[in-house]
Specification:
Length: about 425
């Protein structure tokens, strides 16, 4: 095999099994070609009578020139007695969970959305690192994971920290948090197995707490109370941006982040919809009813502002909705209603009105039909009400026919 160059590397085609192309100009330096088409640079050498291989890195992140220079450095050190493969194995054995988490956030989250990574980072910093961060990855057992889960559930990591000038991070723990954090821990250990830091995942087989959904729906009378709350807020000149956001949430079924980050460019007035370029489930089209359109048309567009609901800080979106909602929801006894429950309520009205779960899922932007199943009992209720209405109508007509038949018989007598 001649010298490994970009031309020879690009020409190397994948086969049924992985194979290695060796560089004749630099003995011990080669390129592994995988069946998937992935290619990686490596060096092979002997140490204490054993043949060892050390992977330099993937073709792409490593160019042929960069990989060759690295190989020359490694082979030079090996000639003087170094054992890079053994050193890497030792480093792996000494890796702490704290270091693993940092590596996971850097390399293991490439397919996750930025918002999901931010959530993962919060759980790592507030729960995993404080309780398990100093432990060696190889030493964590299933019993350790169970204890970790119980500690989070019992509030061992709860805290109330000041984060910014006026910000606070309130961490309460609880069973729901424990279950979701252990789920993340399982993903982190799966990543560790892929990196060769462990041969097993200690989270597998751990029985988690049931992750109870908090599915709160506003009843018709409570929706009336919401209307009264928003009208009072307007009359008392309570933050108009917050009131507008709340109206859009109940009128569209959108997530809070989708409304707060809404830009004027996302509104398709002609098609009467929002065209969101990104959401929790990717691109999304949100149909707009007349009340939602009227709310949007009443918003005064500020020159130079892209956001429909801008912050007082130029170029940023409004962020004070939760604080306002915490204050005004108590006016009509809706203290237990979360902002996200407005989304649930939009869907519940649709289900009670007889709209199919498929249609509701499309309106909400659900990718997995199972997510929409929480509204199934309301759809069933609508079906029962329809069946009652239909059978009552049929029964009334049949009874009228029977009465007419009976009257005709009496006339014949």
């Amino acid at each position: 095999m001649p010298k490994l160059t970009k031309k020879t590397i690009d020409a190397a085609k994948p086969k049924e099994k992985d194979y290695i192309l060796w560089d004749n100009d630099l003995p011990g330096y080669g390129l592994r070609v995988f069946p998937s088409g992935k290619k990686s640079y490596l060096v092979q050498y002997r140490h204490e009578g054993r043949t060892r291989r050390f992977t330099i890195g993937l073709h792409g992140p490593y160019t042929p020139d960069k990989a060759r220079k690295k190989a020359m450095t490694l082979l030079g050190a090996i000639g003087e007695g170094a054992d890079p493969s053994g050193d890497r194995s030792k480093a792996h054995k000494d890796t702490t969970l704290e270091k693993l988490c940092e590596l996971y956030l850097t390399e293991g989250c490439s397919s996750k959305k930025a918002s999901t990574v931010a959530t993962d980072k919060g759980r790592i910093e507030r729960h995993i690192k404080p309780l398990l961060g100093k432990r060696l990855v190889r030493s964590v057992t299933q019993d350790d994971v169970i204890k970790f889960m119980n500690d989070v559930a019992n509030g061992k990591t709860k805290t109330d920290d000041k984060t910014k000038t006026r910000g606070r991070a309130i961490v309460r723990g609880g069973k729901g948090t424990a279950t979701r954090t252990v789920g993340l821990l399982g993903s982190i250990f799966t990543f560790a197995v892929q990196k060769g830091l462990r041969t097993d995942n200690p989270v597998h087989g751990v029985k988690k707490y049931p992750d109870k959904r908090n599915d709160r729906f506003l009843s018709p009378s409570e929706i009336g109370k919401l209307g009264a709350i928003l009208k009072r807020a307007e009359d008392e000149d309570i933050n108009s941006t917050a009131v507008t956001a709340l109206r859009l949430l109940i009128y569209t079924g959108c997530r809070k982040s989708e409304i707060l980050t809404l830009k004027w460019d996302y509104i398709d007035w002609n098609a009467r919809c929002l065209r969101l370029p990104d959401s929790k489930t990717g691109q999304k089209i949100v149909p707009l009813g007349t009340p939602a359109l009227e709310v949007l048309k009443d918003i005064e567009k500020i020159e130079g502002e892209d956001f429909v609901l801008p912050s007082s800080d130029k170029g940023k979106h409004y962020t004070g909705l939760q604080k306002v909602w915490n204050t005004i929801r108590a006016w009509e006894g809706l203290d237990d209603v979360r902002i996200h429950d407005l989304r649930h309520s939009f869907a519940s009205v649709a289900a009670q009105g007889g709209d199919s779960l498929l249609m509701i899922g499309k309106m909400l932007g659900h990718k997995d039909p199972k997510t929409t199943q929480i509204y199934a009992h309301m759809a069933d209720q609508a079906l029962h009400e329809a069946a009652e209405r239909i059978t009552e109508t049929i029964s009334a007509v049949m009874n009228k026919g029977a009465e007419m038949q009976q009257a005709e018989g009496q006339d014949d007598d």
